[in-house]
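As described in the Methods, two query proteins were run sequentially through the folding procedure within a single session, without resetting any intermediate state between them. The first query and its resulting structure tokens are shown here.
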Amino acid sequence: MTPPQRRRRQPLPLPPPAPAPPAESPADRGKQPDRLYTITGPDGERAPLDLVTLIVACADPPSSATPEQTVVLRMCAAPLSVAEVSAYLGLPFTVVTVLLTEMLAAELVQARAPIVRQKLPDRSLLEAVMHGLQRL
């Protein structure tokens, strides 16, 4: 029995070079997303916001609101965390904190601390459970 003969692999043909991108026209620039610094504006002080800080809308969007602010105000009719707002907008956390800081200064939204559960349950609840177990 003779061993199988191996064939040498032929190199794959190179793909043709990509065509040069067309020159940009002003009409095409409107289709590109905005740069993050145009959304946030000048860098200033930021409100102390965590990922779990809850944001609640206080007012309807004014006519002078940016599209991002309008979306945030509509989303935050019910409390949302800053992390959720960031995820829904598809923007980084830092950009959202700057945006929310401006909205807090304009009193369009309120920031609330997250609801923290108690570390230990209430003593009366523990006593009720203990008495219930003793009756069994």
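Immediately afterward, the second query was submitted; its sequence and tokens are:
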Amino acid sequence: MTITVLDTHSAMRDVLRAPRAERPELLRAMLEPAKGMYRYFPGEVDLVAMHAMGSGFPLDRDEDRCLEALERLRAADAWRRIQLALDNAVEVQVEATPQITVPDITVLLVLGDPADEHYMTTSLGMVANGSVSGYIYLNIWPYEENLARLEPTAVHELNHNLRYSPGNVVWNPATVTVGEQVVSEGLADAFARQLYGDLGYARVGLPHLHDDAVFAKVLTGLDITGMQNFTAWVHGDAHALRYGATPVGLPTGAGYAAGNRLVDAYLAATGQTAAQALLAPAADVINPRESRARSRRVLDRGLSSIESVHRSS
């Protein structure tokens, strides 16, 4: 297993310093090693277009602003810190769940678009994805809060990557539930918190972590299926409006806040660490009492079978 954090510092610097007409092809070359993250998309994917759709840094403006931000990332030692964090997190995870297979992972770190108000304010300068096995995507604007969270942000996405790697939890876009994603966000935050304390909380979820009304509202949507319906329930109404989905009356980061509460209750009920709970079924996390009762019934049936054998002998 190898984790490769791509050297996008020098590549982004070259893109931003090049004549504008040359930038798309330079960017395409930079993104090429991570194109596998789009392998489930239908047809041929335009990497440059996907970069723009994901609030990636612009190719036709704000060069000085982006170069200054790039320097802040370099000064923060972002690439090395992410590499060390992921290497350490894999060791912790494998020790807790030695049965899992860890894929080779390619990590793509890019700057975002400083003129994208939704990205800079609602998303707090952060877009990340670790759901496709073998790839982690980190789009970070170097706000001080984001720089302080480089390691837990990367570890959060690693948790997703390992949970949904082949042979582990199956993610079927048509049948997966809101509950699965809410639980997965809570598990990823819990793993990041296991390693980095409160910095492991995703920033978007913090404002509503103790909001009982938000928590209760998210719980009403846990059985909704089809990932096309997830944006509002997990990320909130502002994200839903941004991406053409239907709002449901939830603030930004609602699903993250709810996921943390569900997972913390599950870990307390089972005595597990977040790393040990990597592959926990979402249904068990959502209802840990029923999970314990089911386990007790299985154990009781097993003990009864053993007793029967002893009696017959």
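Residues 1-168 form one domain. We note this only descriptively and draw no conclusion about the first query from it.
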